[in-house]
Amino acid sequence: MRVLFAGLASVGHTYPMIPLAVAARNAGHEVHFAVGEEVHGPLAANGLRPFRPADTFYEMYAEDLEPDLARLRPDLVVHGWGVPGAAVAAHRAGVPGVWHGFGRLFPDGIGLEPPTRNADAPGLPHLDICPPSLQDKAFLAEQDRIELRPVAYSEPGALPAAAGRRTSTPLVYLTLGTAFGTAELLGTVIKGLAALDARVVVATGRVRPEELGDVPDNVSVHRWVSQAELLPHVDVVVHHGGSGTTLGALACGVPQVILPQGADQFANADAVAAAGAGLRLLPDEVSAEAVADHVRTASRDSGHRDAARAVAEEISRMPSPDEVARRLPELVDRP
Hints:
By secondary structure, the protein is of the alpha/beta class. Helix content is 36%, strand content 15%. The radius of gyration is 20 Å and the shape is globular.
C-alpha cells in the first residue's frame, strides 16, 4: 500500500507524525511525506521520501498537493491537523484520508482552521495522540477517533552531561520551544532555577545561547537538545506548553511547570493543571521567584508526580504506532 503523509513544516507539527510514518514503512508500506523543506532532514534520514509540493514552504493548500496526488496515486493520505488543504485535496481526488493530531484539540483563535469544521473534507477519522483524560471533552464525544500513543521524536544527538548520571540533586529541563522564547524571558526563568538546589539543562531554541550571557555553574545552556532522549532523566520540566513537550513529559511521568505564551499553550497548561500533573504561570505572573516556588512545589509535592505517572500509565495503554500502522489498510476499506 502507498501512504502519503502531509504536514505543516514545523517541528511541532511534523515530528508527532514521524513515529507512525516509520511504523508504516516498517510494516511494508511505501511511504511518502509532503511537507516544506524545513523538516526534510529527519524525514529523509528515516527513509520517508520527503518532497515539497509546488511552492509549499510552511502552509499547504489543496492546489499544492493535487499534482502529486495524481502522480503518486496513494491508497491513503494521512494529513496533519495543520494542513486542511491536504484533506481537501485528497477528498477531491477520491483518495481516503485521515487526520493526524498533534496533541489536545486546539481552541479557536490560534490561526489554524479546526479540522472538525472542515466542510470540504467531512467525516474523516482522527488519529488522536492525546490521552483521553486530557483531551477536549466535546471532541471525545463527537468525533471518530483512533487512539495512537504519542511517541516523542527528536533528532538523535548527544545528551547534556548533566543527564548522564543519576544523583540526589534534581534535574530540571527548561525549554520555551522554537517559536515563542525570548532572551529576556529565558533569563528570568534561569535566574529562578539557578537559585534551586538543582542541575538545570536549557534548550534555547530560537534564542542564541550567547544572548543569555554568563550563567551559573549549575546551569548548562544548549541551542538544541535531543528532548526525547533527555526527558526520561528529568525530574521537572519547565516549558511553554507546546503539545510535543507537554505530551513528552506526560509520557515519562514528569511533573511540569508551564509558562504559556500563545497558540494552544494556554489550553494545554489548563489541562495539565486540571489533571494535577503540573502547575502553570501566566505571563503576568512570571518572575524568578515565582518560577522557583512553582518548581519546588512540583518537585516536592508527591501529588503532582503521582498524577503525572497516572497519565503516563494511560499513555502506555494506548495503541502503539506499530499497532496502528497494521490497521491502516482498514482505513482504505472504510465506506
